[in-house]
Design a protein that fits this description.
Elements (H helix, E strand, L loop, with lengths): L9 H14 L14 E4 L7 H6 L2 E7 L2 H4 L9 H16 L3 E5 L7 H6 L4 E3 L5 E5 L5 H17 L9 E4 L49 H28 L5 E6 L6 H9 L14 H7 L6 E5 L31 H11 L3 E4 L11 H5 L6 H11 L4 E4 L12 H12 L11
Parallel strand pairs: 1-2, 1-10, 2-3, 3-6, 6-7, 7-8, 8-9
Antiparallel strand pairs: 4-5
Helix pairs in contact: 7-9, 12-13
Length: 427
């Protein structure tokens, strides 16, 4: 860690070591990361904002909804809704917290689909997804830009009110193409049509479909990289827009799960993309993060910390010596894997746990308050992998009886030695 950016709190270290000796807790799992760590909640409870801040949860998050924000095209904005969301932001800021903004583009207004041709993704068989196509359609980006311009003004983007912006691919809550175990690049513009964004490279195999073995696998690899770069181009465009608005905070890249590791990436290409794979949604995170053209203030954001992948294995001091293409990393947890990618590209690490019932199979793990539960495992990963910040999903679950708030507050207190640091803006 850069100790100039993350100063060492000696009193916190002493308290943490003392807690280790007494409790034999998760804090002893690793020793190479040092406080402060910065903590937040997702969909932060308004009536608990000051309480969360007092207990070391210094980052709040609010999620906007494009459909409610701009219910009709043009300059028609819902000022009543906007005022309500501005009030939420002020509540968190008055509590002394940093504000994270989720843009809510996936709550797409119906008028976007009705007025913009080819605004949804298309599969090789011609199936049309329900997700907004913000990757291949520049007219969709233009519509979203109008929304972004207004919200940047409404939430004082240029004045430092917003500490971080959560970036997605538009139609998804994360940076992915639609689900369905098929690839989604056969709409008119993805096939090098007139509305493909000028910043995107041309489709290297227009007309080609998975399973067609008349081209060499090197050409298939070029197509796959182009497909992944479409996601990079989409988030890079959003970053450029917010920088134009004067934003000086962090960009959080919402990347879930392990995705297709390098060995799977190669196997899928050799099989001409005929198998169900994380690659269908563009999830090859080592490629994605490597392709981001401007990594300034980018956070590698693991939106699946403690998802039980790889036995929730924690990072070790030797992970940096393991090549990204080394099959030894295939057994690692998703958080450890993305943390290794972040180290490769000198990115700050952040993340969140899977929400309650997301999926339902993890619900017993989520509510487990012991050292075997999701929160304990998440905190081990935060410390062991040197995360800068972490958000618990979701704030209301800490007050509705699902989990005790004291559990989260206690972990934070132990990790940070009782201090309540407010995260700084990027230097």
């Amino acid at each position: 860690l850069d100790m100039m950016k993350f100063p060492l709190h000696l009193d916190g270290v002493v308290m943490m070591l003392f807690s280790c000796l007494l409790l034999s807790s998760f804090l002893c799992d690793v020793v190479h990361a040092q406080p402060p760590f910065y903590f937040g909640t997702l969909t932060s409870a308004l009536d608990k904002s000051a309480y969360e801040a007092q207990n070391g949860i210094q980052i709040a998050m609010i999620e906007l909804n494009w459909r409610k924000y701009q219910p009709s095209s043009g300059a028609s904005f819902n000022t009543t809704y906007i005022s309500g969301m501005q009030s939420q932001a002020r509540t968190h800021l008055r509590a002394g917290r940093r504000l994270t903004l989720a843009l809510g583009v996936h709550y797409t207004p119906q008028w976007v689909f009705d007025t913009i041709p080819d605004s949804r993704y298309v599969s090789p068989s011609g199936d049309v997804s329900s997700d907004l196509n913000m990757v291949f359609n520049n007219d969709v980006r233009r519509a979203a830009y109008v929304y972004f311009t207004r919200l940047a003004q409404d939430f004082n983007i240029s004045n430092g009110d917003v500490w971080a912006v959560r970036l997605t691919s538009g139609g998804s809550t994360e940076i992915m193409y639609p689900q369905g175990n098929v690839y989604w690049a056969w709409d008119k513009n993805a096939q090098n049509g007139p509305k493909m964004p000028a910043t995107m490279g041309k489709n290297p195999l227009p007309g080609w479909k998975p399973g067609n073995r008349t081209v060499p696998t090197t050409s298939v690899a070029a197509w796959v990289d182009w497909y992944i770069k479409g996601l990079d181009d989409c988030v890079a465009w959003q970053m450029r827009a917010f920088k134009q608005f004067g934003f000086k905070g962090y960009f959080q890249m919402l990347t879930p799960g392990s995705g297709a590791r390098p060995s799977r990436y190669t196997a899928d290409i050799n099989n001409y993309l005929t198998q169900a794979s994380p690659l269908t949604v563009g999830a090859a995170w080592d490629k994605f993060y490597g392709f981001i053209p401007d990594k300034t203030n980018v956070m590698a954001y693991v939106s699946s910390v403690a998802d039980n992948s790889g036995n929730n294995s924690v990072c070790t001091a030797t992970d940096r010596s393991v090549s990204l293409t080394d099959a030894a990393a295939n057994t690692w947890s998703s958080a450890r894997w993305i943390a290794r990618i972040a180290d490769q590209y000198n990115l700050i690490k952040s993340g969140e746990n899977p929400g309650y019932n997301m999926p339902a199979s993890l619900a017993p793990f989520y509510v487990d308050t012991t050292s075997n539960g999701m929160m304990s495992k998440a905190m081990s990963l935060v410390r062991g992998c040197g995360f800068h910040s972490f958000y618990w999903a979701h704030s209301p679950r800490l007050y509705d009886g699902t989990l005790p708030f004291s559990l989260y507050a206690g972990y934070i207190r132990n990790l940070n030695g009782g201090s309540n640091p407010v995260p700084p803006f990027p230097l």
